[in-house]
Each structure stands twice: as structure tokens, then as C-alpha cells.
Amino acid sequence: MNNARSEKYSLFMISTLSVLIFVSLWELSTRLGLIDPIFLPAPSDVFQRAVRTLENGTLVANVLASTRRVMIGFLMSVAVSVPLGLVLGSSRRACAVFDPIISLLRPLPSMSWIPLSLLWFGITETQKYSIVFMGTIAPALLYVIDATRNVDKVLIQAARNMGASHYQVMRHVILPASLSQIIIGFKIILGLAWTCVISAELIAAKEGLGFMIMNGKEFFQTDTVVLGMVMISLTVLIIDALLRRIEKRVLAWK
């Protein structure tokens, strides 16, 4: 146990040192004039911008706006893809009905939905949620279908031999057996959800990290642009850490 903790601490220190060296080289290159700050500002300039936006409240407001849009759109996608994916993954006939539709939706990037969503919902929060939902539902469905089909057929047959109904098999056998793979897929989908919401905010938004990045670009504030990018990464890392904790609780039996 001590060896495992020691190794974990050692890896953490190596990662921390790597980040510090990268930031130091970035700062030094900018200060020495090797990099024009108009194109890439120094980390210290980005930090100062972060302090100013924290003081006036805009940074927190933008982070919360984007996070809310991502999570609502993502949870809508999860709520639809899990039950539908379980059905499609366990029924060839149902899959034959929906597979052409999924195949048509899957190649469409989130940006392609923006014009239609603006016509349907206007520049509203619903429009942002719809972009995230439409950009993630097809890949989320594919992850659930694939996870469902990978469940050991022996387990399914054993449950049926014991008299379990189709619904009971899906709930008590297929879902628990595929849950680990589904969660792994949804972690990837969550990153895609951020891409969708930033795309929407770059074009039609009054707040959010995408709006912050575009606003910085319009006023040649590259420190604001980089700050928005950094905040996206940090927010995703925090959400990912929270999901890992939830995953450990949900899959404690494993």
C-alpha cells in the first residue's frame, strides 16, 4: 500500500514539474521576445487577466454559463441514449429501424445544426442545449449499442432460462454488465459536448467561455482568448475528476 502511494505521489510530482517547466519556458520565450505577445501572451499576462475578470465576476459567470449548457445538453443525451441504446443493442429489428437515421445524424458536426437551431429557438438557452444534444446523441447511442452487444451472451441466456422477461434481462443483466463501458464512452462524449457548446457560443451567445473567446478576439485581447481556452480545460478536468468519483461509487461492486 505504501509503495502504491509512493509511486502515485512520485507520478504526481513528475506531472507537476512538467507543467511548471512548460509554463516557465513559455513565459521566458515571451519575455525574451522570441514569441510576439500579440499572438501568444505570457502566462503572467493571462493570470493578470484572470484576476481582473474574477474581480468583476465575468469569469465565474462565463464558466457557469458554459458548464450549465454542457451538463443539461449532455444529460438530455444520456437520458435518451441509454434506454434507446439498450433496446437497439438487444434487438436486431429495432436496430434495423433506427440504424439508417443514426447513420445520417452521426457525420453531421455540431456547427451544421446552428442555423436550424437559431430558426427553431432563436438566441436562447434552449438553442444551446439543442446544439449539445444534437451533437452528442448519435455517438452516445453508438457507445451504448456497442456496450450492449458486448455483454456475455451466456449471462443473457442464463437469465432467460430462469424465466426473466425481456425487460428484466435488460435491467438486471445487460445494463449492469455494460455500465462500465457506457461510462467510459460518456466521458468521451462529455468532451464532445464542450466542443458543441463552444461552437454555439462562438456564433450566438451573450455569455459563456465561447463568447469570452470570441469577444477577446474581436478586441485583440489574446490574453482573454487564452484564458478562455485554459478555463475550458480546467473545467473539463474538474468535471472529469467528479465523474471518476461517481464511477467508483456506481461500480463499487467491480
TrEMBL record:
Q: Which domain of life is it from?
A: Bacteria
| Segments traversing the membrane | 9-26, 70-89, 101-123, 129-145, 184-205, 225-243
The protein's matches in InterPro entries, at most eight in alphabetical order, are given as:
MetI-like, MetI-like_sf
According to the entry, every stretch annotated as the ABC transmembrane type-1 domain falls at 63-243
Q: Which GO terms describe its biological process?
A: alkanesulfonate transmembrane transport
Q: What is its main location?
A: membrane
What is its subcellular localisation? Cell membrane
Kindly state which keywords UniProt assigns to this record, in alphabetical order. Cell membrane, Membrane, Transmembrane, Transmembrane helix, Transport
Asked if the Swiss-Prot or TrEMBL record annotates the protein with the keyword Transmembrane helix, the reply is: yes
Instruction: Note the topology in the membrane.
Output: Multi-pass membrane protein
GO cellular component terms attached to this protein's record:
plasma membrane
Regarding protein family, the annotation reads: Belongs to the binding-protein-dependent transport system permease family.
The protein's matches in PANTHER family, at most eight in alphabetical order, are given as: ABC TRANSPORTER PERMEASE PROTEIN MJ0413-RELATED, ALKANE SULFONATE ABC TRANSPORTER-RELATED, MEMBRANE SUBUNIT
Protein name stated in the entry: ABC transporter permease
